[in-house]
Amino acid sequence: MKHLKIEDRKAYFTRGENWMVVTDMTKEDLLNLAHAAIEEEDFETDVYDETLLPNPAHRIIYQQINGQLMELHNRRAAFQEEVRNIYKDAYNKYCIE
After folding, report:
1. What are 62-96's pLDDT values in tens digits?
2. Highest taxon of the source (predicted)?
3. The model's pTM
4. For 10-61, what is each residue's pLDDT tens digit?
5. How many structural domains are present in the chain?
6. Which of 2, 35, 36, 58 could staple 44 via S-S, CB 3.0–4.6 A?
């Protein structure tokens, strides 16, 4: 599913089922996007192209967020394994066998 897009010379992100302008993004929206990047196999964004975004604020926000989310998405397997390893000892200690 696509979560970031560039359309009509503006940058957008998903908030639930709606597309919102990136300048309206909140901390909760960013957290939801990060969660989607880790959890969703089909996480997608439009490739950053500064020529499509004349607004400097949209360019900066989109470039930074897109880069971070795609890096997180590409490293999601390693990230999930690291989280499992952090809690592995506690899980093994309290696991009923």
Report:
1. 999 999 999 999 998 888 888 788 888 777 777 66
2. Bacteria
3. 0.80
4. 999 999 999 999 999 999 999 999 999 999 999 999 999 999 999 999 999 9
5. 1
6. 2
Residue 69 CA to residue 55 CA, distance in Å, equals: 21
The range of the structural domain enclosing residue 60 comes to 2-94
Quote the tokens at residue 60: 């900066």
Torsional sign, CA 11, 17, 18, 22: negative
Contact 19, 45 (CB under 8 A): no
User: What gap in Å lies between CA 85 and CA 90, rounded to an integer?
Assistant: 10
Strands in 16-64 per DSSP E: 18-21, 44-45
Q: Which residues pair with 14 in a beta bridge?
A: 19
Tokens at 87, concatenated: 């809690």
- What is the residue whose two structure tokens read 């909140």? 26
Residue whose structure tokens are 């999930």: 80
What residues form DSSP beta bridges with 67? none
